């Protein structure tokens, strides 16, 4: 073993495990919006479905769509499903996301569209790159 290899092994063995970077405002908003959308879809798919769930406003979030702020407000203000535990938890998450977007992380967010109808339907999940790209 050469001295250079020994030094490299010594350095690598003595380095502490790297800590992941702390979440940024943007990553927190993105993660929470995906979690809320997934929870909403699970709530709609659950059996038996609470009858009030079908009357809740759709909740398919895109934090890059300017209409998302109004969508979040509308969802929290909807009077359907009072006292349904799963909906209350979901509304709490929605309030948290709205507060993060509107207060703490307002400067970190860039809106790329204002297509309100796009927030009414599930976002299609893609598993690969768009056609023509590799």
Automatic annotation (TrEMBL):
InterPro entries the UniProt entry points to: CYTL1
This protein's record includes keyword Signal: yes
Domain of life: Eukaryota
Protein name: Cytokine-like protein 1
Any one biological process term the GO annotation gives: positive regulation of transcription by RNA polymerase II
Alphabetically ordered keywords of this record: Signal
Signal sequence annotation: 1-20
Classification of source organism: Eukaryota, Metazoa, Chordata, Craniata, Vertebrata
